[in-house]
Amino acid sequence: MFPWNKQFPFNHSEFTKQFQEMNPKEIENYIQTVMSSIFGNDFSKNFPFQGEMQNNQSKNLPGQTAPEIFETNDYIYVKLAVNSSEINSLKIQHTTTQLMLINNQNEDISPLTFMLPAPVKRKGTKARYIDGFIEIQLIKLKEHSITEVEISK
């Protein structure tokens, strides 16, 4: 049989000793490294309440701020400040989980990508420019695909 009590879940005396000797900055750096290797370098904008990480917002175009994203029962609204001169060169694309803003005039700038708080439909998105802001309305996806998993015996 397995020696369950030997180190289940940890060897308590050694684990407690190691835990007390840990440096919080080293732990934070390790977590940041693991998370960036899994989710990419700009993962922090997708996770709320990250403390210092909130200051490391995604690279916005000069003069731009992060968008306001608001969720209702049926829609997701994104409000983004944009100069009127940039409207003609701006292209908006989205997947079910991300919103991408592409600047057609300057291909050197990578597209801005923002995670959406809920899945959205592929069609029915509306965008309009009002008083220095682009307001984007995305329709939330109500049908979530459900997969049944058989338990093997």
From TrEMBL:
- InterPro entries registered for this protein in UniProt: HSP20-like_chaperone
Q: Which domain of life is it from?
A: Bacteria
**The protein, known as:** HSP20 family molecular chaperone IbpA
